[in-house]
Specification:
The protein is mostly helical. It is built from 9 helices and no strands. It folds into 2 domains: 1-54, Orthogonal Bundle (Arc Repressor Mutant, subunit A); 57-207, Orthogonal Bundle (Tetracycline Repressor, domain 2), CATH 1.10.357.
């Protein structure tokens, strides 16, 4: 028997309510102590309804990861449409980096969720893998595709370059925002982005022309 449009809409609304309740419960209690009963109560549905949408707590957590990553993926890449992705690397990469840092800076829930994933990764590696798997399917793969489409960059390893780009920004987010290290290791985001783009866009030119860079020594 086919469901009506109203039934489908109610099902979607219930799923959204469950995910919202799950986010609050996971952030408040952690993964191990989170209760499906309390999630159901927070969502305003029965426990049976929770299990009808998500077969267990791990499946619910994975769905929450997928939803969160999709939303953040849109906030990062949404302002860079397909036409813009054909633009000059310095412009496109700057926009991506700026979007990524702005997203993290203004979303405490996302930072808390990342803390949760990292904190639980030792006991529940599958949770962290779900997070990485969704990130790789979105940001990493799209960035690799863009870098590979820009022959003027002369990149010897597109995937490694994409990891350098994303990894640098993730490190900044962790140190500056998640671990409250801004006062200890201060650095303006524009300065980081400027030098990251120079590294990617100009590094291959140095190698290509056989130029050598000067080495600075610090005490």
């Amino acid at each position: 028997m086919k469901r009506t449009n109203v039934e489908r809409e109610l099902s979607v609304e219930k799923k959204e309510a469950i995910l919202e309740g799950a986010m609050k419960e996971f952030l408040a209690q952690g993964y191990a102590a989170a209760s499906m009963d309390r999630i159901a109560t927070a969502a305003g549905v029965s426990k049976a309804t929770v299990y009808s949408h998500f077969r267990d707590k791990e499946n619910l957590f994975s769905a929450l990861v997928e939803q969160l990553v999709q939303k953040k993926f849109h906030s990062i890449f949404g302002c860079v449409d397909s036409q813009a992705f054909e633009g000059e690397p310095k412009i496109v990469l700057r926009q991506l980096a700026t979007n990524m840092l702005n997203m993290a800076r203004g979303d405490e829930q996302f930072l808390n969720f990342m803390r949760l994933v990292i904190g639980e990764s030792g006991r529940f590696p599958s949770l962290a893998q779900a997070f990485i798997r969704n990130v790789e399917k979105s940001a990493f793969s799209k960035l690799c595709h863009y870098l590979a489409s820009r022959p003027e960059l002369i990149l010897s390893d597109v995937e490694a370059t994409a990891r350098i780009f994303i990894g640098t920004l993730v490190h900044y987010i962790i140190v500056q925002y998640m671990l409250h290290g801004g006062d200890i290791l201060p650095m303006e985001s524009d300065r980081l982005i400027d030098n990251l783009i120079k590294l990617i866009c100009n590094g291959s030119k140095i190698e290509n022309h056989g130029e050598s860079s000067s080495t600075q020594h610090y005490p």
